[in-house]
């Protein structure tokens, strides 16, 4: 009826995620990122390490580039080419493994009578902003606006939004803010600040495509 994660080699409690408790599932490819991520946004929080969490993710780092500065420039360039080739192969291998896994999870959930589909972000219509305390790259998906690379993660369900309000929109300013007002008026609005002004028109186009009033 769900997923169980067990940390190999250690005595720890397994992490169980029921299909029925998954509100959104995301697959973050590693095309332009340093990691590849499977992220679950839950309806109800689960206890992990004595704390309740509504967002759970599993990821693998693609790798990082390091150089030995004691070597000559020609050797460094040769190593750089080899490392780029190895990283390209690693990215392709990890992508295949993760994509095969999440497709199997979707199939298994369907057999169990659950509706589960992994949402994949659209980086081409993403934009920079500050949903919490630091800037990150926010990416729309079919059903959400997310950032699952930085932590804490940010997941906003578009169907919960009634309208969007833009603040500090002025040609003399380099940034503006965006306020998401929810259909549930008891819920506090979500504010994303410091969005570059150049992103205003693309964001409007995206909101229009989602039939969200602004």
Characteristics of this structure?
single chain, alpha+beta, 37% strand, 214 residues, 4-stranded antiparallel beta sheet, 4-stranded mixed beta sheet, 23% helix
What can you see in these coordinates?
This protein is α+β, with helices and mostly antiparallel strands. Helix content is about 25%, strand content about 35%. It has two helices and 13 strands. The mean pLDDT is about 90.
Overview in brief:
The chain is of the alpha+beta class and 214 residues long. It has two helices and 13 strands; from the N terminus they run βββββαββββββββα.
Q: Helix and strand layout, with pairings?
A:
Elements lengths: L1 E4 L9 E4 L3 E7 L6 E14 L2 E11 L11 H39 L6 E2 L7 E3 L6 E5 L3 E4 L6 E4 L3 E7 L7 E8 L7 E7 L3 H10 L5
Parallel strand pairs: 3-6
Antiparallel strand pairs: 1-2, 3-4, 4-5, 7-8, 8-9, 9-10, 11-12, 12-13
Uncertain ranges: none
* Strand adjacency order, main sheet: 5-4-3-6
The biggest beta sheet, please? 4 strands, mixed
As a percent range, the share of strand residues is: 35-45%
- Bin the helical content: 10-25%
- Class by helix and strand content? alpha+beta
Shape: globular
Helix-strand pattern: EEEEEHEEEEEEEEH
Averaging pLDDT over every residue, what do you get?
91
Using the CA coordinates, give the radius of gyration: 20 Å
Question: How many DSSP helices?
Answer: 2
Oligomeric form: single chain
What is the terminal-to-terminal distance?
40 Å
Give the number of DSSP strands: 13
